[in-house]
Input
Amino acid sequence: MDNGELIPHLFRTEYRKIVSVLCRRFGFDEIETAEDIASETFLTATQAWGLNSIPKNPTAWLYNVAKNKARNYLQRHYTFENKITPELKNNVGTIPGDDIDLSPQNINDSQLQMMFTICNPAISPEAQIGLSLRILCGFGIDEVAAAFLTNKESIYKRLLRAKERLREEKISIELPPAPEIDERLERVLATIYLLFNEGYYSVSQNKTLRKDLCLEAIRLCIMLVENKSTNKPQVNALLALMCFHASRFEARVNENGELILYEEQDTSLWNTDLVSKGGYFLTCAASGNKISKYHLEAGIAYWNTQKDDTKEKWENILQFYNRLLQIKYSPIAALNRTYALSKANGKHEAIKEAEKLQLTDNHFYFTLLGELYTEVDDGKAKINFTKAVSLARTQADKQAIQRKIDRL
Amino acid sequence: MLMRLDIITKEAQPSPEQMQVYMKQYQDWVGSIAAQNKFIGGKGLSTEGKVCKHNNVETDGPYAEIKESLAGFIMIRANDFEEATSFARACPILGGEGNSVEVRKVVMHGNS
Output
């Protein structure tokens, strides 16, 4: 790796660590100072390393520079404070700044605490994802903007407002106490899953960026699993779920960025390593007596890694959807349940159930009805597909449904 | 909806395999209601229990006096009694003789 690649790479992996450690030391109030010092550290590196003088241990070099900059800042701050409030002078024995701890343990703790700080319901889910990308994943502002399909200015403003809001809430950077962990984790897991979905289902054509979003979500979840107090069944379940989904990442989009339907995917592109990792975490998730929605979704995702249409597969998927819907209703889960029902118990039963859903503003609903009526009553299939075409929002969706009509 | 069935008599005890079939039928039924966004909540009840009565009398469950006992309940959202009753009619426990599903309206206080 030469200098041209090394610095962006290090920025991605080290910026977030420096910001988390410094911010934890300074307090959330001074998050911008922490960000500035981390950015300046990389600027210094770019200037000092030039093209050929990369230090032996670039990471240690960065940490040293960041530490020095932080120390300078704290000393300036200290002097200023002492001019205004001289009585403090006698109370502080040591010069501040010697306690900046960039050890692996403290880096990990700081990042974990930062995760709980950012994933706070005081700010909107989009703001949580934006801040997570910037501070926990080391994305540049332009990359965050690309992920949200918007411009740098509005992302910059959105992040600024979010930080302002967290400051107003006086949120401290710490792990929640043990009795609150489950409740607070829910928020963190929701943000991680949103981050993953942002990559998995995003309309962005940039495949590399989308994959990065998914991998970053997985990385954040692994950090939770690696920490004893946050290594909970539901965290393992979410991790399993994301591994199962991500296993099809290469197969579900073609070179033009177009989605390839599940049935038409090249299974040789499915990542078996991720499938077995998912299996491992799903086993880890099977402790305790609470079943989260992530457990159920991971169960469904597991069966979707099995391409063969077996009775067992669809019966299991149906049962997971039955239970998922009892925890949390969503139209898409209701539609998927009905599809699983048709595979498990046959089309006639599924048609009866589908007609009850009455999701009449949803093009997926009419597409499903069309599918179910196909070969049972092609006339009704056509009526439903035609309704679906009229409700579909994108040209690609309309064309995909039209092809189904043509095939009748 | 209150589901009552005979869960005490020895002969009425299902085998583990039967139990699995019953659970599947039950889950399919509740799943169908939930898929219509009409499921609010509910629980199955274990066979253990105590009954406290007037004059400090306590017994182990209501089972000595009636064969049918409360096995579970769910709360649903329905437009009217007719819709609620049609859900109840489809409940798989009705396949067993003597079992019943009671449909009752939850009394709302304050707002209507």
Q: What stands out?
A: Chain A has a mean pLDDT of 89. Chain A has four domains: 23-102, 117-229, 232-307, 329-408.
